Amino acid sequence: MLANSPPHTDLISTVSNRFHFKAIVYILVILFGLGTWTNLAGVWIQLPIITPILPESWHLPAKLTLIINSANIFPILIVFASLVFKFNTSSFEVPVNFVLLCTSILFAIAFAFLWDKTADLFGTKQSVYLMGLCFITAITDCLSSTTFIPFLHRYEPIYLNAYFTGEALTALLPAMIGITQGIGKSDCVLFGNETNGTLIEVHHQPQYSVQTYFLLLSFLPLSALVAFTILQFMKTGRSKIKSKPVKSEHKQSSIFILMDNIEDIDVIQNTIATINNIEDKFKKPKRKPNQLKKFLMSEPGIFLFIVFQCSAMLYGVCQGLTTFSLNAYSVTTFHYTIITSQFAYPVMTLVAAFIPEVSSKIIYSLYAISTGLFVYIFLTAKLSPCPPLVNQLFGHLIIFFVWILMNLTCSYIRILMGNYFRKNLGHRGLICFGIATQLGALIGATTNFALTNTFELFKERNICDKTLQCF
C-alpha cells in the first residue's frame, strides 16, 4: 500500500490542479463577458442625472432609444453578407475581439468627457456627441455578438454558461455603481425679487459626477481585455474534439448572431443561432396560398407575435417614456426605478434555469399582465405632468412596482419564447425569434419617437411651476 501511495497522491494532485485551472478559466470567461454593453447600460443609469442638464431634456430617452435600435440592424446585414459572400469569421475572431474590447474602453472614457458637449444642429443645440457615441457603441456591441460567442466554441460547453453570467453582470454592475453614486437633489431657487422673480429648478451633484461614473465603468471592459489576453495563453478548457465540416453544395458560414437591442445582454443564449447550412432555395416546394395564414394562426405564429409586441413595448416604447412616466413623480423615483429594472433580466434568467418551460395558458396570462402594465405606464406618461397620485407616496410606490413587474414579465416571456423556438424550430426558429425581437424594438422606438418629438403627445413637468396644481 505504501508503494502505491505516491502515484495515488500524484493523481489526486493532478486532478486538483486541473480543477483549479478550470475554475480560473471559468472566472476569466465571466470577466470576458463584461466586455460590451456596459457603456450603454451606464447611459441609462445616468439618465435621471443628465436629462435635466442636456438640451433635449425629457425627450432625450426617446431619441436615444431610436438611435440605439437603429444601430442594431447591423448584425442582420452582417449575416446576409456572410450568406452572399460565403466568408468565414473564425480566422479573424481573435483580432476583432481585441479591437472591440479596446474600443469599449475608449468609448467609456469618451462618454466621461463628452457626454455634456453640444453642437448646433438644424438651428438648435443637440447632444450630438452623446448620441454619436451611443450609435457607434451600439454597433460595436452588436458586432461583438458575431465574434465573442464563436470564439467560445473553442472551449468546452460549460464555459458558455460562464459567458452568459458575465453578460448578465453587464446590467447588474453598472446599476450597483449607480446605487453608490446616488442622485442629486433639486431645489427651487428664486431669481429676482419676490414680486417679479422666477422660480428656477437647480440641480445638485450626486455623490460623484457623471464623468467619474463612466471612468469607473471603463474598468469593466478593461478587466475583460485583461481576461481575454490571459485566455490566449492558457490551453485549459479548450475543446479537444473538433467538429468535422459537413459537406454541402454551399460553403458554410460560421457567423453567430444576436439580433437584439441594448439591453440585450438580454436573452443572448436564446437568440444565438449558428448559421450552419444554406439550403437550396430552388428545391423548396411552392407554398400554398393559405400557408402564411395557417402559420400566423398556429401556436408558433402567435408566440412570434407575442415576442414582437413584448419587444416593442419594453425595448421600444417604454424606454422612451421613462422621463414622462417616472420623472413626473420625482427624480428619486426615476433614479431607483431605472436602477432596479436592471436586475429584472438576471433574476428571470435565474428563474428560467429552474422553470424553463410553462404551459401556453401561463404564457398568455403573463402576456395579458404585461400588456395591462404597459397600458398603465403609457397612461401615466400621457397624463404627465399630473399622472395618477403624483403627490402621494402610494402613487410613487405603484409606478415603481408597475415598472419592475413590466420588466420581469416581459423578460421572462422572451426567455420562455427563446426556449420554445430553440426546442421546437431549431436555428430557424431562433433566427425568426431574433428578427421579431429586433423589428419589435425598432418599430416601437420609431412609434414612440414620433409620438414624443413629432406630435408632442407627452408634456414635461416643472416642479417649480406653482400655478400647476396636481391632485
Automatic annotation (TrEMBL):
Catalysed reactions listed for this entry: riboflavin(in) = riboflavin(out)
Listed InterPro entries: Riboflavin_transptr
Superkingdom of source: Eukaryota
Keywords: Cell membrane, Membrane, Transmembrane, Transmembrane helix, Transport
Record localization: Cell membrane
Segments crossing the lipid bilayer: 23-45, 66-85, 97-115, 127-152, 213-234, 302-322, 334-355, 362-381, 393-417, 429-451
An annotated GO cellular component: plasma membrane
Signal peptide: none
GO MF assignments: riboflavin transmembrane transporter activity
Membrane topology qualifier: Multi-pass membrane protein
Record-stated family: Belongs to the riboflavin transporter family.
Stated role: Plasma membrane transporter mediating the uptake by cells of the water soluble vitamin B2/riboflavin that plays a key role in biochemical oxidation-reduction reactions of the carbohydrate, lipid, and amino acid metabolism.
Entries under PANTHER family matching the protein: RIBOFLAVIN TRANSPORTER, SOLUTE CARRIER FAMILY 52
Protein known as: Riboflavin transporter
Lineage: Eukaryota, Metazoa, Spiralia, Gnathifera, Rotifera
